[in-house]
Each structure stands twice: as structure tokens, then as C-alpha cells.
Amino acid sequence: MYLYKTGIAQIDDVSGGLEAGTNILILAPPMSYAEQLAYALTKPSQGEYSIVLSTNERASEVIDFFKLAGTDKRFTGVIDAITKSSTPGIIDTQRMMFVSSPTDLTGIGIKFSNMIESIFEGDFSEGETGLFPPPIRFCVNSISTLLMYRRLEVLYQFLHVLTAKLKKTEGIGIYILNNESFDDKTLSLIKQLMNCVIEVKVESNISSFRIRGIRGVPASG
Amino acid sequence: MISTGVSGLDELLGKGIPRGSRVLYSLEPGVDGQLFMISSLSCSLKKGMSCMVILPNATVDAFRNDAVARCGSRLDLKNAGSIIFLDAIDRERIQKSARTPEAQAREWQARIQKICRENKVDVIFAYFDLLYEDFGLETALKILDAGRSDEKTTIFIEHLNLEGRDLLDRFTSEFSFNLVIAVRSSDRPIPHFTYFSLVHSSWKTSVSRSVPFIISEGRIIPYIPNIVVTGPSQSGKSTFVANATRGSQPADRTGHDRDPVSKAMDFGWLRWRDFDISLHGTPGQDEYDPLIPAALEHAMGVVLVIDATRQDTFVRARQVIDLIERKNLPFIVAANKSDLHGSIAAETIRHKLEIQKTIPVYPIAATRPADVHRVLEALVEYITQYSR
Predict the structure, then answer these.
(1) A17 in a domain, yes or no?
(2) Of A180, B210, B277, B343, which is least surrounded by CB within 10 A?
(3) A117 touches chain B (CB under 8 A)
(4) Among B182, B201, B222, residue at a domain's last position
């Protein structure tokens, strides 16, 4: 089974990386740099692909972040749920797709499938090919925003489909959720869809995190 | 009649949809079926009908741009018949002005009623997800019904169906929808074909079909699904195809009546789980390998027929599997002649062919139609299991 390197020694050294099909929830308070952590986990290694569903930042900003981190942009795609509301005429490209708003789960699902399909068919990276079957890292930034627009039960059903698809394609999923803005019921329902939870804490301006649910990795920060 | 804008679908329905009908396009998550609604809208506008589009999750401009990008010059929203929108901005206004869900529902109804009355709306197109989420099924449908000034007003709904068959049943049994079309895809591991299923039609009760389609140049183009039967030479492919369609005589064990080695494509038809399926059997010799990728184009799945009594053909079978895997197609293995002495057990075949445990291996006798049908049923089940 393919293992996804995380860059986190506690995971990579103990288990060799994340197993294909893993879905990780990052529970974090606001301004805890959870986004950077999520993007670091999403950054594709050699031969891998990444897709980010962005409900908070424009596609160009997400791509800039990955570019600064030294990623080959031909292996990164963004589904942008922000830009279209202010720039309705914006046109999809192979690696930047736009949906009308974070409420548009139909559009998000279709663009996600389109990107996965184009990766499998080798059309995603301008002729460059990665590994096959393609290892895909998928990031949702963030579930918190989606929950502002859609009911918990609906979003749960939608994410259930998405996480299952990701398991089938042997990708991994990384999802950010603000744990200070939602009640226990919401957190526990979303956790049901995940194999692993990373809890981020900020104390005295220092961020730390605790990992739970990865085989062999002790629950420590 | 109102055209769906999808050639093939109109014919199935008897030239289109009777005016005054209630129509549901149910989309599975991730399945690109939005062109059904847009095509129907485009056709209604071309006929000069007055249309209202309710899109609570997008602005008019975003919708226009999307729709035109998808349909190209076929959809001319500027110069078409009359079209009025209620969009995401209207939803926001309603939510701000009316505090309770009941008051919001009344506000939606009032607006729809006013627009329909003043513009003599013939067809309402509603993107339903958020109305359903805000008000529940019954109230959301009542809101739309407010626009039905007379029996001739037709309603089209597009809905992201996260609840599966149960929800479709509610539309037909509780709310008397006249037409329910589910847009689905196979999913192993990526969608390799999308199809629509005619789940219910009140005026064409005998019609029940599932039809794959591709989208090309802004059009939905249905096609006949194809199952490819392939495998090493003399493994029993022609017999398999013949017995699938109950046509010609089996020849795989005698070889007396005809040349036992096929050097052309075998061809047959069958009806299975509402699909009208064509079967193509490929020749088994490696000099015909260049034909196989073309045969696999738009195939919904593959049956690999092997001779379970001849281990010496397994190397060739493995070569054929490599060709199938390059196309990412689902396949199952039919181990023919498993009824004969000396045949190899299914698990041993799996091991020798180095195939995953998830790929079924069926010991069969291709001379028995029941065995052949069991394999085809399993393949269709295997392909569509995530879609029902």
C-alpha cells in the first residue's frame, strides 16, 4: 500500500507515512496556523498530485502558497468557491476550477470528480506524468465555512460521499475545522468520517498539535 | 410537448414531456448532470416560452456565464424568449426580511406567484437543494407550486440527491412527479461512464431505461453501452457471446461445424438491469491486440474469458489483463470449462493471473446460458453497485 510522507517525524519515522485512504481532521482554533499545517500535509511529493477545495482564499492565493513552498504547480489543482461571486465571468482551467459559492455542493462534487478524472487520464499536468495509480492529496479549507452555509446533516452526507471516493482512489484527505465555533455534536459527527485527528493548540503564542488515530503513533504533540 | 433538449431521451418519452408535468433531474454527488436542466431550459426558450429560473445558490451572472460556457452558442440567453430569475441575492433578501422559516416560505411563494402571474410563466426551472434544506420537501414543493397559475405550468427541478432511492420514491409516490430521471455514474475507482436512468414516467409507464451518455460540444449524447468479451484464443469467447444472446450454437468444444478460432469480432445484444447492452467479442490471438484498445473505448466493462483447463494460456491472459488495466476498466474473469475434469480452481487462477481479491473469478461453462447470464449480471452489478 502506498504511504504518503507527511514531513512530521512522529508519523513518518514510526509508520512510514499515512496509509492510502486516510482522512485527517485538523481541529484548530482561529489564528493557530492550522492552514499552514494542512497545506504542508497537502503539498505533493514527487509523482503525487494535490487538490485543494478553498472556501476562504482565492485559487491564485492557494497556488502562490504552494509555489513558495517549492511545489511544481502542474501537480496542484484548486476548486475555488470564492472568486466566482465577485468575478462571475471567470473560466475554469484544467487545474483551477470555480464554483458559484460554498453553498454549491453540486458544483463542488462535479469539479472534484472532473479533477480526479483528469489526473487519472493524464490530462492534468500538461503532459507531465506522476505515479500511477496517482497518489492524490485532497484538502478542504475549511469545513467551518461550509458549515456556515449548509446544514450539518447535509454536509455530513456530502462529506461521507467525498471521503469514501477518496478511499476508493487511494488518496488522502485533510480537512480543517475550527473547534471553537461549533458544538460537541458537530465535532463528533464530523470526526466519525475521519481515521485520524490532529488537534492544534495555542498557548503563549506557541502552536502545538496532538495526533490521534495513526497506528503506532502515540497521542502526543 | 416540451423537449428535454436531449436527443434520444425525447424519443424514449414519446416526443418530450407533456405540458403541466413536474419533472425531477436527480443528480448523484460528483456526477456531471447539470446539462440536463440547462438543455431543457434552452429548448423551452427557443420555443418562445416564458421561463422562470430559481437558483438560490448562485447569482444570475454566475449562472449565465456557466450555462453559456457549457452550451456555447446553442444557449442564447440574451436573445431568447422571456426569462426571469430569482437568485442567491433574492434568497439573502428574503432571509433578512422574514425571520422565521414560515415567513420566509410565504415570502418565496408571494414572489414566485407575482412573477408567474405578471409574466405568464410557462415553465419554472428550480435548483432545489437549498429550498429543500431550508424548508423540507413538502413546503419547498408547495413554494414552487405557487407559480402554477394553471394546469399548463411545467416545473423542472434539479436536485443533488444525497439520500438515494428513498428520496426518489417520495417524489413519485407522495408528490406525484410525472417524470423522474436519475443521473448517475459508475465509480471504480473513477467514474468511467455516466448514465441516466428513467426512474419513473407517468405517461410512458412501460419505459424503464438506463442509458450512458457523454458530453460533447455542449450536448448530451447518449450511446449504447458496450461490454467487451476478450481473452486468449479458443477460451470460449464466441460461445459466451452466443449464449449471452441465445443465438448461435456453441462451438468451443467441437470445432466441427465451423472454424473454431474467431478471426473477427463476435457481436450480440442483451437487455440487463434496464440497460440495452451490446456485446463485442474480440479475437484472441496477439496479432489482433491493436484492435482491443479501440474495442475498449466507451466500454462499460470487460469479461475476460479463460480456459480453466489450460494453464498454458494464462500468460496470454495476463497480457490481455494488462491491456484492460491500461484503460482503467472494470473486469471480471469467467473461468470457462470449469465443469470439465482437470480444471483449475478459482483461487489458483487468481494467484496465477496475479489479480486482486476484489476482482471476481467465476467458474463457468460457457455452453450453459445460465452461467453466462450469471457472469453478466455480476459485471453489471459490479459496475453500478455504487449508483443505486
Answers:
(1) no
(2) A180
(3) yes
(4) B222
Distance CA B280, CA B237 (A): 10
Report chain B's terminal Cα–Cα distance, integer Å: 30
3-state secondary structure of A37: helix
Q: Does A132 map to a domain? A: yes
- B200 is a domain residue: yes
In a domain, B196, yes or no: yes
Three-state DSSP class for residue B229: strand
The helix-helix angle for B369-384 and B237-244 (nearest 10°) equals 80
What ipTM describes this predicted complex? 0.91
* Chain B, nearest residue to A168 by Cα: B189
The whole-number pLDDT of residue A139 equals 97
Are residues B62 and A84, on separate chains, in Cβ contact within 8 Å? yes
Number of domains in chain A: 1
What digits encode the pLDDT tens for the residues B260-302? Answer: 455 556 777 776 666 777 888 888 777 777 778 778 877 888 9
The three cell numbers locating residue B67: 450555462
Q: Under an 8 A CB cutoff, do A120 and B69 touch?
A: no
- Contact B373/B245 with Cβ under 8 angstroms? no
Quick: pLDDT tens for A3-47: 999 988 888 888 889 999 999 999 999 888 899 999 999 999 999
Q: What is the pTM of this model?
A: 0.82
Using CA atoms, how far apart are residues B294 and B277, in angstroms rounded to an integer? 17
